[in-house]
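Quick question: what would this complex look like in 3D?
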Amino acid sequence: MEPTRIGVLISGGGTNLQAIIDNIKNGNINGRIELIISNKKDAYGLIRGKKANIDTLYLDRKQFNSEEEYNLELIKKFKEKNVDLVVLAGYLRVLSKDFIEAFRGRIINIHPSLIPSFCGKGFYGEKVHKAVLDYGVKITGATVHFVDEGTDTGPIILQEAVEVEDTDTLETLKEKVLRVEHKILVQAVKLYCQNRLSIEGRKVIIK
Amino acid sequence: MEPTRIGVLISGGGTNLQAIIDNIKNGNINGRIELIISNKKDAYGLIRGKKANIDTLYLDRKQFNSEEEYNLELIKKFKEKNVDLVVLAGYLRVLSKDFIEAFRGRIINIHPSLIPSFCGKGFYGEKVHKAVLDYGVKITGATVHFVDEGTDTGPIILQEAVEVEDTDTLETLKEKVLRVEHKILVQAVKLYCQNRLSIEGRKVIIK
């Protein structure tokens, strides 16, 4: 089977991106990252991409009149590279309807909680872990899901739980969840590239 | 240490009640159930209580003018028995403010999901598992928490995750979660009876 052509969107450090790069390199994922696009000029993920000889691009939102126009450019760049799967690896902007339509059922996102807990508008990055600690839950986790028009509402591919301990801080919790994020994102991308994921209504069936 | 005096409220079969009875009997929980009250005449939990030589009482809501008056009677009955801890073991009515005030920090409830997912008004019994299956989550679980004025909003004592498999039905999921309910409810009651739970804001610290 030909390697799946992957596009990645980032806004920051890109440790989830690195996990994908490493697992393509070691043969675990049958894919190829064709292009990494960042909306932040200084995103460290761009450097990770360059180090792995992957094409990278910084696209400045300010150079476009609207979110829609910005997204049309994203679509164009990915389409030029014949991207089949788009992975959001810590991309902190919302995708336009056009983008979701252009890659329906082919956009994967990672979220640092057990959806539907601690997700939706306002829940991103450390804000998620702060809310988890403030609520006092004993279990949190991470979720990989397909992206639809809502915020964190798309069909769930994989989830894994993480215990919250009394001694956990924002830092220790973030670290523990991040380890699980890497694991299930890699697993989900691997399954996608093996053509083993099918969406039936709200459910993702693993073949 | 003297055994903790426990009151139990039920509406149905009472398998969680049975788990507590068994773990008191085998010495795992240092407690004594003083009284079991059901709002349903034919709740099988009443028979479980009688078999274990525990006082049981059926209190018909219809015999009272309001939920408040009904709850005043519940308080009276438990106070007569010097109950220290109230366990809701599948009690499907909402407690009044008076009741919560009378036993503040001393009422434990078990909920068949990972709060704050699939909880609050309308989420009880099988409706929870149906919502879990409809949403398509891959992880659910159970939560033991102290009861406050909200619905399923009180400080969380223990949680445990349960995997949802593609082949799970309402029945199989209910069964798997129930096993975890028994385990963490028994553990929470045991910790309470050992005086090892302290509530700090929204967090329950296990000493």
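Answer marked as accepted. The first strand of chain A starts at residue 4 and ends at 10.
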